[in-house]
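Hi everyone, sorry if this is the wrong subforum. Our group has a chain we'd like a structural model of before ordering constructs, and none of us has done structure prediction before. Sequence below.
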Amino acid sequence: MNKYRIGVDLGGTKIESILLSPDMKELYRDRIPTPPGNRYEYIVKAVYDQIRTTTEKIPEKSVFSIGIGIPGAVNKETGLVHNANTTCLIGKPFQSDLETLCNKKIAMGNDADCFTLIEALEGAGKGYGMVFGVIMGTGCGGGICINGEIWNGANGIAGEWGHFSMDPGGRPCYCGNKGCVETKISGSGVEASFFEMFGRPLKMKDIVEGYRQNDDPCKIIFIQFLEDFGRALGGMVSVLDPDVVVIGGGLSNIDEIYTRGVEQVQKYAFHKKIRTPILKNRLGDSSGVIGAALLKGS
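Answer:
Right subforum, don't worry. Here is the predicted structure as tokens:
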């Protein structure tokens, strides 16, 4: 590996970039807020600006690659984004638009796959055969890595656990279904549940703190969150039976996930004595940006 690598992770609340040296040392990292308003042209400009700023840190005439993780996927036949949590990307040629601006080929992949890949290679999933990586943040996604290789599946959506319906009578999801996992256990989903039940907005971090301070409304919502987490992940473990589950995204920093949350997973899994480790990421909740830099084709 004799080239520099740029990785960009596009999230619902932030855009992060990283520069890796040819020997995989981190040379530069930056994070900016994702532009508000869900406007495609703003997203394109912000990501391009991050790439341009990061490129300036590379020695002149050096060879480098660019990989981008997005909260969705690129249809290989059409080149258009689909299944994106950042809905303004859906149906847009995001990859080719950025390639035109950069005048350079760019690799693009699902953000949860990027996270899963790096955690399987160098993080909490290292040494395990099948790693199921979970992203729990503004949205909710997942990826599968088998023996160091991302498994995409026949339709390119393998591991996309955020969009099966847990509750057909639940809240509508942007994907067109109701009661998806994402509407239940993402940060935005939990905040929406609190607002629906109590008529006032409250951020996820304040709901968690309120639970710890024995606030009754926060307790109701947070306990339901842990049960929904257990039901969703317990079902996935029953189907996939991975060697390890690694959790990332902002919500991965909630300690109760690894105690009461894991108890709920054990409750809802088909096997009543599951031995599957459910681990917090080792490389940081935003380590997917490193995985983006390692995307094949970049």
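For your construct planning: The chain is about 35% helix and 20% strand. The longest helix spans residues 216-240.
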